[in-house]
Amino acid sequence: MAACAKLGEDVFNKESGPFDKPIRKWVLGHQNPILEAAFLAITRVASPAVIIPGTLVGAAWLSRRRGLPIAGAVVMSPAVALAIFLAVKRIYRRKRPAGGKRLHQLTYAFPSGHSAASAAIFGTAAYVLWRENMIPRGVAIAASTVAPLLVGASRVYLDVHWTTDVLGGWSVGGLVAALSAGVYERVRHQTL
C-alpha cells in the first residue's frame, strides 16, 4: 500500500518522469507492426466498454447457475473500479503521451482505466470461479495476472499511457478485486 501511495505522490508532484521517460523511449525504439497489431487487438478487446458488459453477462450466467449473491461480487468489481479511476483521473489531470492523440485517447492518463478494469474484473472473476471449483487454482492465478499484464503492456506499447499510469491502474484494480473477493467470501459464508 505504501508503494501505491508513493506512486500517486510522484505522479501528482510530476516526479515520475525519470521512471516513465526511459521506458517510453525504449518501447518506442523497439516497436514493430506485428506487435503493434497484437497490442491494438488486446487493448480494444480489453477496453472497459467491452469487458464491463462481458462481466455482466458472466454474472448473469453465474446467477443462473449458482445464485445471485455470488454474481453480485463479480458485478461489483467493474463498477467500483470505474468509479474510482474516473474520480482519480479528474484529481490528477495528467496528460497522456503523444500516442494518445493518434488513437483518439483524449481523456486524462492517470490511472489507466484499461489496467484498472482488467485487474478488477479478471482478478475477481478468477477468484470466484476458483472458489466455486469451476477452474483450478493455477488457471485462476494465470487469468488474474496474465490478462492484466497484457492489457497494461498494450497501453504502454501503444504510447497511450505512461508506465506509472498502468501501475496506478493495476493498484486500483487489485484493491477492487481484493475487496470484491472479501464481499464474495462474506456472501458465500452467509449462504452456506
Give your account of this protein's structure.
The chain is mostly helical and 192 residues long. It has one domain (33-191). The protein contains 9 helices and no strands. It has helices spanning 2-12, 17-29, 33-45, 48-66, 68-92, 99-102, 113-131, 137-157, 163-191. α4 packs parallel to α7 (113-131). The two termini are 32 Å apart. The mean pLDDT is 83.
Query: N- to C-terminal separation?
Result: 32 Å
SS elements, strand count: 0
User: Measured on Cα atoms, how large is the radius of gyration?
Assistant: 17 Å
Question: What share of the residues lie within helices?
Answer: over 70%
Structural class, judged by helices and strands? mainly alpha
Q: Number of helix segments?
A: 9
Average of pLDDT: 83
Largest sheet: none
Order of helices and strands: HHHHHHHHH
Q: Could you say which overall geometry the principal axes of the C-alpha atoms support?
A: globular
Total domains, how many? 1
- Uncertain segments are none
